[in-house]
Amino acid sequence: MKVMEKTIETDHPNTDQEKIATVTRSITEHGNYLRKRYPILQHQNALGASVMVFSLAGMVVTGGLYLTGYIPAWMCILINALLTSFIHEIEHDLIHRLYFRKQPLAHNAMMFFCWLARPGMPSPWLRRNLHFHHHKESGTDTDVEAWITTSGNPWGILRLLKLMDGFVFGFLNAVFAPGWRQKVRLLGKIIRLNTPFGLLYWGCWYVFLGYHLYVGFGSIIGAEVHSSAATLALMDVVNSAVVILIAPNMIRQFCLFFISSNMHYYGDVAPRNALQQTQVMNAWWLWPFQLFCFNFGSTHSIHHFVVRDPFYLRQMTAPYAHKVMAEAGVRFNDFGTYKRANRFSMGHSQTRSRG
């Protein structure tokens, strides 16, 4: 009888931890099955490096085609936004040491090129600890990574602006922090996290916005704007950088943060409970956003159960994983999260929020 009771309990898990263990085991076993069925998946390092080289080379080629006039600016921006979404997934896998774990030179070189292609983000080496903590304490008050993507904030114009411009978001948080010591500490952290590439990235973006707003306003009021040869030469460089690198990353980051901040629950999540940490967001109307963050809303929840699988394998396991996760109680397309400021509790209204 005792043996039978144990078997029934295993086959029909009751507690959340039992359900989590069942989901993790099932997805892991399915991933192993796919690796055996498609032997190429066993060459994880080569696949990761190939995607990396393809994406970087694609950005260089697309940028060259734009500079030589073969493609318009909008096409360059959209193509590079797609390519940077691949690079983001590669960086995320690298943070979990899924490529070249035992070859630090190759591993760190890939990390560096990921950072170079997405210069508006902090160093991936600095982000690693934050991300590991995100997995341990996802959705709790100490989950800084979730908070950075605006999870837990009431929806409105302010949250939308934060999603569009992370640097201003961080700067305003520092300015309005209580006490000058806290202000100085936060400002120092922002500068440290954005040195050196982030400062160049955001500086270039604000020069671009400032100059074109100035010229546009002058045109509206009928005033002639005369720019020096040096200014025009500088703006040629700035405009090119915006089209090839900055605007694509702005689109990618907005789409990623919009999806990520809404699929993660925040504020009332039970500690280390993967059933409550995320939901699956795969409604058809989200595809314009999913397109530029590599279907993040549909597959990232899988990662909270099984960390070891790279991003392309999560895409392959998704149909099976979704069934297992749904049976365990993971939510799908819970758009009430917009009204609840990402609270897990269905009866929770917008209350406090950080930032």
Automatic annotation (TrEMBL):
Residues 71-334 form the Fatty acid desaturase domain. GO terms for biological process: lipid metabolic process. Keywords: Membrane, Transmembrane, Transmembrane helix. The chain crosses the membrane at residues 45-65, 157-178, 199-223, 229-247. The keyword Ribonucleoprotein does not apply. InterPro entries: FA_desaturase_dom. It comes from the Bacteria. This is Fatty acid desaturase domain-containing protein.
